[in-house]
Amino acid sequence: AGIRAFTSDADSQSSSINPHTFTPFTLVSREPVSSTSSIFTFAHRGNPDAIGALRDAWKRGVWSIQIKQPQLQIARAYTPLPPLADPSDAELGAIRLLIRKENKGEVSGYLHRLPLEALVELRGPSLEYELPNDVKEILFLAGGTGIAPALQITHALQDKARIHVMWATRRREDCRGGSSDTRQAPKVGMLAGWKGLLGQEQADLSNAQEGNHEQNAIVRQLQSAKERSKRIPGCELSVDYFVDEEGSLITPQSVLQHTQSSKSPDSSTTQGRKLILVSGPEGFVNYWAGPKRWEGGREAQGPLGGVLSRLRLEGWEVWKL
Ligand SMILES: Cc1cc2nc3c(=O)[nH]c(=O)nc-3n(C[C@H](O)[C@H](O)[C@H](O)COP(=O)(O)OP(=O)(O)OC[C@H]3O[C@@H](n4cnc5c(N)ncnc54)[C@H](O)[C@@H]3O)c2cc1C
């Protein structure tokens, strides 16, 4: 997915981003989030309204843009992060992307090696999922950079629905400083006990857990979306963090606990759809919801499979991103 081949560069002269032709943007900053991923900020030097065409996409659901690797003439899709509540000058009117450096990945490797001020060609937007307008509740299962679509959803709904995000990452550094809203964090006394029982290495890992460190940029953005959502009763955003290296995984029980708790009387009074959105690496989506399927040259949902197909999720629809 996300791979296209190109034969001509003749279309790269436009001055505003659009879905049909590639437009050159400048890499203005690259902020490391962890040892494997960074937030890239791209701006157009000549045209301050070069991303005007993205305005509508922010309201519609999940969408991506494509970046071209010029030597290989291949492109990959990336999911823009919503604008910050308090953007710096470089971030105003710019496109921000969370990009993970894949081992031997062609396009992600190329981007991580680029010097600042390099020109990069972008095109889009491409709508991946349009939110139905009667949605009232979302459970978002995100793996790794699958958090970017979750941020787009929280931005698009702008406090019109209740959203709970379960975010699974490989390492604590990916979600540094994040503390869960509904999962129980390890107790301080328990951590002290582990130190004696399990030695220094385990103690260091425990210290790195929930909320003990300065928040990284993605956790900060989730936090500010949460603060904003608190203003509208019944539409709160909550986030739980699951970290592979700490042995905490999203479980079928944690999903059921959430879907069943939402049957409480106060939330059933308003009519509307309840959605489970699954977003992340192929293995993550397959595990939870089964593989997507190619139909007529396009990637389609395919039947619901995986763990979610075996849970009793009455009233909830599932969508694979
Ligand atoms: C709609 C959409 C949105 C996306 N949004 C984001 C986003 O916001 N952030 C993000 O980081 N990613 C995102 N992605 C993923 C992104 O598009 C790329 O797939 C990703 O960056 C890897 O591309 P690459 O060219 O670097 O790696 P590739 O060169 O495609 O390689 C991918 C992996 O396959 C392995 N590989 C390659 N060739 C072989 C081979 N012959 N044999 C065995 N292994 C091989 C590589 O080692 C690497 O681990 C999105 C994808 C889609 C479809």
Automatic annotation (TrEMBL):
Entry keywords, A to Z: FAD, Flavoprotein, Membrane, Oxidoreductase, Signal
Needed cofactors:
FAD
Using the record's annotation, list all stretches that form the FAD-binding FR-type domain. 20-132
Domain of life, per lineage? Eukaryota
Localization (cell): Membrane
SUPFAM superfamilies, per the entry: Ferredoxin reductase-like, C-terminal NADP-linked domain, Riboflavin synthase domain-like
The record's listing under InterPro entries reads: CBR-like, Cbr1-like_FAD-bd_dom, FAD-bd_FR_type, FNR_nucleotide-bd, Riboflavin_synthase-like_b-brl
The similarity comment for this entry is: Belongs to the flavoprotein pyridine nucleotide cytochrome reductase family.
Record's protein name = FAD-binding FR-type domain-containing protein
